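User: Let's play a game. I give you a shape written as C-alpha cells, and you guess the letters that built it. Ready? Here's round one.
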C-alpha cells in the first residue's frame, strides 16, 4: 500500500500545525517522523492513518494497483500509541482473542502464539487494569505489530518500556517490518527507530 502525501497541511482554528508536506512512503522503506513534543508529528501520523482529515492537500493510498479512499484506509492500518486506550476490564488473553476477530495475525500465528510472543504469558489471565504502564505498552505494540496489515504506525513505541521491553520491541519489529509500510513517530529517541531508512523532520513544515 504505497502512500503519497501531496501538499498536506493541518491547522486548528487559524494556527497551522504543519503545511506543505510532500512525501512518499513505500514497503520495506521504514520511515521515522522526527520532532520535539508538540511539533505535530502525532497529528501527521493520524492524518496518514485516515483518522484526521487534512486541512489542505490529499493523501493517496494505493492497494494492489487501485486507489483506496481515505475513509477505507483504516482497514489496512494497525497503530500503537501510548495515548490509545485499552479495554482494561479484559485480560490479556481476552484482548488478544477480541483483537483477532477483526484482524488476522501475521505469518499464520494464532492467539496462543501471539500471547507467547508478548513475554507476558504468565499474566494472560490478569485484567489489563492491573498491568503496569510498561506492560500495557507491550500489549499495544503486540497487537499492532502482529496484525496482518500493510501499514504499521508506531507513535513513540518505547514509551514506558524498560531496557528489556525495548529489546523485546526491537526484536519484534525487526521480524515483522518486511513487506509493509512502517512509520515511527519519535522525539529523537534512536532506540525507537534505528531500523528506519528514511526520515521526515516535521519541524521543517512549520509555517
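Assistant: Ready! My guess for every position:
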Amino acid at each position: 500500500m504505497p502512500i503519497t502525501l501531496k501538499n498536506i497541511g493541518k491547522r486548528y482554528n487559524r494556527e497551522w500545525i504543519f503545511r506543505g508536506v510532500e512525501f512518499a512512503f513505500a514497503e520495506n522503506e521504514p520511515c521515522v517522523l522526527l520532532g520535539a513534543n508538540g511539533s505535530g508529528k502525532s497529528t501527521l501520523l493520524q492524518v496518514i492513518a485516515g483518522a484526521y482529515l487534512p486541512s489542505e492537500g490529499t493523501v493517496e493510498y494505493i492497494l494492489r494497483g487501485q486507489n483506496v479512499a481515505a475513509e477505507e484506509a483504516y482497514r489496512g492500518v494497525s497503530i500503537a500509541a501510548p495515548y490509545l486506550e485499552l479495554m482494561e476490564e479484559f485480560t490479556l488473553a481476552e484482548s488478544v482473542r477480541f483483537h483477532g476477530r477483526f484482524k488476522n495475525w501475521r505469518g499464520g500465528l494464532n492467539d496462543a502464539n501471539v500471547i507467547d510472543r508478548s513475554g507476558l504469558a504468565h499474566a494472560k489471565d490478569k485484567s489489563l487494569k492491573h498491568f503496569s504502564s510498561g506492560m500495557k505498552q507491550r500489549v499495544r505494540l503486540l497487537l499492532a505489530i502482529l496484525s496482518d496489515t500493510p501499514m504499521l504506525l508506531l507513535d513513540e513505541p518505547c514509551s514506558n518500556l524498560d531496557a528489556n521491553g525495548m529489546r523485546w520491541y526491537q526484536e519484534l519489529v525487526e521480524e515483522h517490518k518486511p513487506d509493509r509500510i512502517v512509520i515511527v513517530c519519535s522525539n529523537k529517541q534512536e532506540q525507537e527507530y534505528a531500523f528506519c531508512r528514511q526520515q521526515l523532520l516535521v519541524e521543517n513544515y512549520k509555517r
